[in-house]
Amino acid sequence: MDIEQKIKEQLGDNAILLYMKGTPDFPQCGFSAQTAQVMKQIGVPFAYFNILEDQELRERLKEYSNWPTYPQLYVKGELIGGCDIIMEMFQSGELEKELKAASEG
């Protein structure tokens, strides 16, 4: 399986997927830590992938998403954005609505 196919499969298998540095319990950068904390606070189950474990996927995902940094949050296969966008959406209440809708359906 090539890397792009692996990315598509991961996105297809998980309604909410966070590509991050490290894990939600042991993030490896401040932006990933902030994002994981917000996701946990909302309380909706989500999958994650530690991009530090797969250098090829890490580089290819930047091209796939046309987004140069991590973390990257996907909901139903669509890129929501990185830490700044996630924090703005969280503060407005939009993130919680979107995540709850995705987890229910």
Automatic annotation (TrEMBL):
The keyword Metal-binding applies. Keywords: 2Fe-2S, Iron, Iron-sulfur, Metal-binding, Redox-active center. The keyword Transport does not apply. Belongs to the glutaredoxin family. Monothiol subfamily. PANTHER family: GLUTAREDOXIN FAMILY MEMBER, MONOTHIOL GLUTAREDOXIN-S14, CHLOROPLASTIC. This is Glutaredoxin. InterPro entries: Glutaredoxin, GRX_PICOT-like, Monothiol_GRX, Monothiol_GRX-rel, Thioredoxin-like_sf.
